[in-house]
């Protein structure tokens, strides 16, 4: 029964858990398989070609080994690098986080002055600028900015402290000067740093993440394609990491909650 197959969600590490949380909260009966590619994070500084290869490899693993019925690319860098190719090659429906994130920012911005922060890969790809142009005919003022270093804080389990504050002040200075009214967290790791980011940009700036909007898109697509589970049950959750599974469980539980107590290992074969 395809309806009873799980939803697959992946990211380079912990970031996609922000999206998994929103999907699970909205669709508690659905089974979910989450894959964090922690052995190969961060994706942000890598070339888009390399990230595309990783995204293809993870997608075929989730489709072939876990029979997922729908894939959520819960990583902006991977979505920027590979969403088009994945849509063509993978035989299940796919949702990325870039369009839902841009839509969420458009919906809340009052002045149309929108900052977008993300990894070097995401920002340099221009994927957000294209998404905003496609989604809105209004004259938006966009301020895209790469924030190298933020992802590593989350992966180290640090979401506060002086070092993070100093980095945030340095990186976000152009956003503060631009006086944006909305700041899109264009990397799924960043919601875990929201308090540190808000402290620098100020409480007048609305912080937007793609998580909720992506979950709504998943629910809509499942309904449209008649793929939603028909069972009234508590969905099963499976968490898989390509890196250190005890670290993934330790930090993952802090970020996601007690459901992440157990993590399965998946090792990529070394390239020949
Ligand atoms: N969560 C990924 C994203 O949304 C982080 C990428 C990274 O590993 O650098 O872009």
Description:
The chain is an alpha/beta fold and 272 residues long. Helix content is 46%, strand content 16%. Strands 4-3-1-2-9-10 form a 6-stranded parallel β-sheet, sandwiched between helices. A 4-stranded parallel β-sheet has the order 6-5-7-8, sandwiched between helices. Helix 1 (17-26) crosses helix 10 (211-224), helix 4 (98-108) crosses helix 6 (127-135) and helix 8 (162-178) crosses helix 9. It is globular, with a radius of gyration of 18 Å. The termini are far apart. 47% of the residues are buried. Bound molecules: D-glutamic acid. D-glutamic acid (DGL) is lined by residues 11-13, 15, 41-44, 75-77, 118-119, 122, 151, 187-189.
Write the layout of secondary structure elements.
Elements: E1 7-11, H1 17-26, E2 32-36, H2 48-66, E3 70-73, H3 76-89, E4 94-95, H4 98-108, E5 113-118, H5 120-125, H6 127-135, E6 141-146, H7 150-155, H8 162-178, E7 182-185, H9 194-201, E8 206-209, H10 211-224, E9 237-241, H11 245-256, E10 264-265
Parallel strand pairs: 1-2, 1-3, 2-9, 3-4, 5-6, 5-7, 7-8, 9-10
């Amino acid at each position: 029964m395809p309806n009873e197959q799980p939803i697959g969600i992946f990211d380079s590490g912990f970031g996609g858990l922000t999206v998994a949380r929103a999907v699970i909260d909205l669709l508690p009966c659905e089974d979910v398989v989450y894959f964090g590619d922690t052995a190969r994070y961060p994706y942000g500084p890598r070339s888009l070609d390399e990230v595309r290869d990783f995204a293809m490899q993870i997608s075929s693993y989730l489709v072939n080994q876990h029979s997922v019925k729908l894939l959520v690319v819960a990583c902006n860098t991977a979505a920027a690098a590979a969403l088009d190719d994945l849509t063509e090659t993978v035989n299940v429906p796919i949702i990325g986080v870039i369009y839902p994130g841009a839509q969420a920012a458009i919906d809340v911005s009052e002045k149309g002055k929108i900052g977008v922060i993300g990894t070097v890969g995401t920002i340099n790809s221009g994927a957000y600028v294209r998404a905003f142009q496609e989604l809105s005919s209004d004259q938006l003022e966009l301020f895209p900015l790469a924030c190298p270093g933020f992802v590593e804080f989350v992966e180290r389990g640090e979401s506060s402290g002086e070092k993070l504050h100093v980095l945030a002040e340095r990186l976000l200075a152009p956003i503060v000067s631009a006086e944006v009214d909305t700041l899109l967290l264009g990397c799924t790791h960043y919601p875990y740093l929201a308090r540190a980011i808000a402290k620098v940009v100020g409480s007048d700036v609305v912080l937007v993440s793609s998580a909720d909007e992506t979950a709504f898109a998943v629910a809509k697509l499942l309904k449209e394609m008649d793929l939603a589970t028909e069972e009234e049950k508590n969905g099963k959750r499976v968490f898989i990491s390509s890196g250190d599974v005890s670290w993934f469980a330790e930090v993952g539980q802090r970020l996601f909650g007690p459901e992440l107590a157990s993590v399965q290992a998946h090792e990529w074969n070394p390239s020949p």
